[in-house]
Design goal:
44% helix; six-stranded antiparallel β-sheet; four-stranded antiparallel β-sheet
Length: 237
């Protein structure tokens, strides 16, 4: 990979990714030396459902919005892939088609590894199999936790957990030292989709949290003012 193509911030996002930084220096080098960069404008289509998987990718800047279409044709957002996270590998293992549409959310940079190089690295590094197994196990755990939350927690607690996650993944310092601004720009409808709730109910809970001084709602996005308060709410108080 031609490093100058990436900005310093983008390179740092890749190199400090939670999973990627656990790999050996040799494996990281072999992955990045065959990688290439793609840049997408906000809203641009990255993958389509039904596509033949040809790449394994990681977000270096921005976010990848994973979505599915409802019976009425409406796009429903399932998750946002944050910088430093690799995805798209499942189809390279089972040779099946892409299962969801993926769009750029904001100006987005991807680091990509072709299917052929992905398979070559698998054949070269036993460590790669083990590392991918850990990644998949973590995804499965997260999926079970999401299903459990959806069935056991009230919307208020699920919203608090989502805000804590977004502040960890996309947080930037706010005006006050104790504040964190969520850098991912989400409309309330998009936030509601992540929670499986209506926009109206999410708006009511956000207003309630704002009155309690846990968050602040600004035209540019959400500000987390009191992380501890959100943790108490997330624990269903």
């Amino acid at each position: 990979m031609d490093d100058p193509i990436l900005t310093q911030e983008e390179r740092e996002a890749i190199n400090t990714g939670r999973w990627f930084q656990t790999l050996s220096p040799t494996l990281r080098h072999d992955i990045l030396r065959c990688a290439y960069v793609k840049r997408f404008k906000d809203g641009a289509l990255i993958f389509s459902r039904g596509d033949t998987p040809e790449e394994w990718v990681s977000v270096a800047r921005g976010s990848a919005r994973v979505s599915s279409a409802s019976l009425t044709g409406k796009q429903i957002t399932l998750t946002y892939v944050e910088p430093g996270t690799w995805f798209g590998d499942v189809g390279l293992f089972d040779d099946d088609s892409r299962t969801h549409d993926v769009y750029a959310h904001g100006e987005t940079t991807l680091v990509c590894v072709s299917k052929a190089d992905f398979q070559r690295i698998l054949q070269t590094h036993v460590e790669f199999y083990q590392a991918l197994s850990r990644m998949h196990a973590r995804r499965i755990r997260s999926l079970y936790c999401m299903v459990e939350d959806l069935n056991t927690l009230p919307l208020r607690a699920r919203l608090a957990k989502q805000l804590l996650h977004l502040s960890r993944s996309y947080g930037v310092p706010g005006k006050e030292s104790t504040e964190t601004r969520i850098g991912l720009q989400l409309a309330q409808e998009e936030l509601a989709q992540l929670l499986g709730a209506s926009r109206q109910r999410v708006n009511q809970e956000l207003k309630s949290m704002e009155r309690e001084s846990s968050i602040r709602i600004e035209p540019s996005g959400l500000i987390v003012r009191d992380t501890d308060a959100l943790r108490r709410i997330a624990a269903a108080e």
